[in-house]
Amino acid sequence: MTGKFVTATALLVLTIVMGAQGRGFAQTAPAGQAPATTPATPAQQPAAPADAAQKPDTSQEPADLDSVSRRQRIHDYKNWSYNVGAGANLNSGTTRTWVRQGGFVGSVGVARNGNKYLGLRMDFDFANMPLRDSTLEFAEATGASTHAYSVTLDPIINIPVTKEYGGYVLFGPAFIHRTGSLSSDTTIPGSPCSSFWNWWGACQNSNYNIPLSGDFTNSTVNEFGYNIGAGVTRKMPSGVEIYAEFRLMHGSRNNIQTDYRPITIGFRW
Q1: Which residues are paired to 245 by β-bridges?
Q2: CATH assignment at residue 96
Q3: Which of 64, 81, 123, 208 is the most buried (most CB within 10 A)?
């Protein structure tokens, strides 16, 4: 009986020892093999918004806009301006004695402006000077054609009154080239000079008689003088100005004078 108890006890102890060894073998990893681990996920920086990367730097824009606005306020005029006009001619002085009023006048010009108020303007003018009927009778001619061409170079003073209305004055030297031609003239060459032939230019260079050649029927007179003018302007919504101008033109050479007063209406831009 005692032997059976000892045998059973030995078997129980052996079973417990074998079970403990089996559990330790199952928990031991094979040699040379590292235990599996889960890799740590690195911390990620939040992505920057796309608009922040593409947004331009506007820190200098207000200063640039102020600079441009300031230059525009200071430079409130055109460096160059142009004008074209047409009208009628009123004569004065000796010219009025021989030429009737109302001849056609045309004018073109250009101005270089130094600032809003001062500039330098050059004009080319054409003036038709039709002779009076009494002049044709005096000259013994059936018809005539007379013109004056002038070039002027004037300082111009602009006078702004409102945003729409303004004025200007100008004055300076003038060069006048006057030409004329008589038709079917029956004056006898060599006749004494008269006031008309003096003005016509046939008796230049202290001649007391009309030249014997027939060239006296054609006249060419070059004169230097001056001009004075003034005008008013009206600015249109397009920026073009309508102007009305009055001038006094005077030229003289060898006691021959040409005086006329062109009145023109035109455009300035």
Answers
A1: 231, 264
A2: 2.40.160.20
A3: 123
